[in-house]
Design a protein that fits this description.
alpha+beta, six-stranded mixed sheet, NTF2-like_dom_sf, DUF1348
Length: 137
């Protein structure tokens, strides 16, 4: 069986590594690459959307990064247990009209025994910012 290291149960070191790996993957803005961290039947709640399965994840991410230009993300470990990790994050992006945003949020992740994320629940808020106030570049 394929594994996505590190695998549960998590400790501080492996949970921190898992968060950094997620940040690095999302910053590629490559839906195919990002989707491979999730189970085939992954369940997501992203804002007001409910997404089921790796194929829907790819479609969602493709649309996201077509809208959210110059996307840059920073994640931080918040808490962890055996197979669960909570993160806080912020990311910056602009729309096609040039308006910049900083999006803040929290995610709760649950992993299977092979280290693939089977559940991702995200709550996110957007704040309009001026380009000069960007922190993530």
């Amino acid at each position: 069986m394929e594994q996505k290291l590190p695998i549960p149960p998590f400790n501080f070191e492996t949970a921190t590594l898992k968060v950094q790996m997620a940040e690095d993957a999302w910053n590629t803005k490559d839906p195919e690459k990002v989707s491979l961290a999730y189970t085939i039947d992954t369940e997501w709640r992203n804002r007001d959307l409910f997404i089921n399965g790796r194929e829907e994840v790819k479609s969602f991410l493709t649309a996201k990064w077509e809208k959210e230009l110059e996307y840059k993300l920073k994640k931080e470990l918040w808490a962890f247990t055996d197979n669960k990790i909570a993160v806080r994050f912020e990311y910056e992006w602009h729309g096609h009209n040039g308006q910049w945003y900083r999006s803040y949020g929290n995610e709760n992740w649950e992993f299977d025994e092979n280290g693939f994320m089977k559940k991702r629940f995200a709550s996110i808020n957007d704040l309009k910012i001026d380009e000069k106030n960007r922190r993530l570049k």
